[in-house]
Design brief:
Elements lengths: L8 H21 L11 E3 L3 E3 L1 E5 L2 E7 L8 H10 L4 E5 L4 E3 L2 E5 L4 H6 L1
Parallel strand pairs: 4-5, 5-7
Antiparallel strand pairs: 1-2, 3-4, 6-7
C-alpha cells in the first residue's frame, strides 16, 4: 500500500488479514517475544530495546534515544541473543554505521522503514 493512495474497504481488510498472518507466524517462531501487548524486548531488566519491527520474514530491533548517547548495550545484548541482520537506533546523531549497528537521525527515522 502506498502512502496517500485511496484503497477500497476490501483492500484494507486484505491488508489487515495479511498483517495478522505475518504476526501469527512471527509469534509461532518466537513466542517469548510476543508475550506482552507491546512490541518491545527486555532481558531480565538488564537491557531493553524500544521497538521490534516485523517486516516480511524479518524481526528488526530499533532503539530510540532522545540525545547523543553512544551507549549500545541493549542492542548488543539483543544482537548476541537473536542475531538479526541489522541493529538500528535513532538518535540526535547523524547517519552512521558502526559495524552491525546503523544510526538514523531522529529527523530521518522514516528511512529506517524504507530501507528495511
Amino acid at each position: 500500500m502506498q502512502s496517500g493512495k485511496i484503497i477500497s474497504g476490501s483492500q484494507h481488510i486484505s491488508t489487515l488479514e495479511g498483517r495478522q498472518r505475518l504476526y501469527e507466524a512471527a509469534k509461532a517462531k518466537q513466542p517469548e517475544r510476543w508475550s506482552r501487548t507491546t512490541r518491545d524486548w527486555t532481558s531480565k531488566r538488564m537491557a531493553e530495546v524500544d521497538f521490534i519491527i516485523v517486516r516480511e520474514d524479518q524481526v528488526l530491533p530499533l532503539e530510540v534515544k532522545a540525545g547523543v548517547s553512544r551507549q549500545k548495550k541493549s542492542l548488543r545484548v539483543y544482537g548476541e541473543k537473536y542475531r538479526p541482520p541489522i541493529l538500528s537506533r535513532a538518535t540526535l546523531m547523524n547517519f552512521k554505521e558502526d559495524g552491525d549497528i546503523r544510526n538514523y537521525p531522529l529527523y530521518a527515522l522514516w528511512l529506517f522503514l524504507k530501507n528495511t
